[in-house]
Amino acid sequence: MQIDICDPRRRFGTDVPKLALQNPLLKFAILAFASRDWLRVNGEEDLESDKYSSQALQLLIPILDRPVELLDETVLAAIVLLRLYEETIDVDTGTHLLGSARLLNSPSAYADRGGLSEAASWIALRQQLYLSTTYFQPVSMDLDYFARSYSFKDSSPESFTNRIILLCCRVLTYSHNTQGRFGVEDWTQLRNEVLLWYDSITWPVKPNILYYFIDGVSGSLPNLWVPMPVHAIAYQHFYFALLLLAMYEPRNWIPGKEALLARRKVDDQIQQNLAMIAALAISNPEVITASLTAHHILYAYWSSMH
């Protein structure tokens, strides 16, 4: 399942359907998302997803009125599924992310609990990153909870991918907190962490850091096929982190001739990293999440350059 692409245990494909047999909220959340996804895959008229979504919301709203400490992992999983449904409708307001942010920012944070709680937390963070990217909003989740996650103890490709996604969120959060004016020391630390992430990878296929032209032809994209779907997501977020760091490099904003010349190179760096993100999606067409990731990033940053 694409929703489980960053979870080595694939809990949304295994645990969640079993839990839904005894949990009406999960059942209707699954049906809402599945009905909408059926429309996307088969092109058939969708007559049921709105009904299932409404039934799920009727159950969810009173549940969210309870103290956060009384809510369990199934509530967060249902919110994640409803958010996936919400992403496919014509007007995406990010409503369900408010519920997941409330849970993940609570003292009983889910991101370091393991199991379905932790898996759902990482999906919610990825959803928050896409919304923040599209609408230039701050990431409204406490990122410190994620740093205590099992993903920082595990060496699986999925865990490595979660780490680079968290780094993207940290860069975005810092940019919003400082109105894009990074301190040199903070920017350098984040850049070093991103490059260290890349250097620590031992996967068999590892694309070059920098974008390059094929046979010297400007505008052509490299073939970046990767053996595992999660590799595509990992590298897309790596290049997205490089894109953000290029945009906010503090030395480019110090008044003077050198900074003026450097700023002219920023657009080229952004285009290079966008090209790598797009190439990963095009080279791995079976990875639906890679296509969606490229769509969100290209929509936000390519359109802003033209």
Q: List SSEs in N-to-C order.
A: HHHHHHHHHHH
Q: What is the total number of structural domains?
A: 2
Distance between the termini: 35 Å
Low-confidence stretches: 212-218
What Rg do the Cα atoms give? 20 Å
Strand content: under 5%
By DSSP (H or I, 4+ residues per run), the number of helices equals 11
**What is the helix content?**
55-70%
Quick one: how many beta strands? 0
Q: Give me the secondary-structure category.
A: mainly alpha
Shape: globular
Instruction: Give the biggest beta sheet.
Output: none
Mean pLDDT: 84
Outline of this structure?
This protein has about 300 residues and is mainly alpha-helical.
Characterization of the model:
The protein is mainly α. It folds into 2 domains: 1-154; 157-306, no CATH class. 61% of the residues lie in helices and 0% in strands. Helix 7 (157-177) packs parallel to helix 9. The protein is globular and about 65 Å long. Keywords: Nucleus. GO terms for molecular function: DNA-binding transcription factor activity; transcription cis-regulatory region binding. It is found in: Nucleus.
Structural features:
about 300 residues; mainly alpha; 2 domains; about 60% helix
Break the fold down into its secondary structure elements and pairings.
Blueprint: H1 11-20, H2 24-42, H3 49-64, H4 73-86, H5 95-104, H6 115-135, H7 157-177, H8 184-199, H9 229-247, H10 257-283, H11 288-302
Helix pairs in contact: 1-2, 1-6, 2-3, 2-4, 3-4, 4-5, 4-6, 5-6, 6-7, 6-11, 7-8, 7-9, 8-9, 9-10, 9-11, 10-11
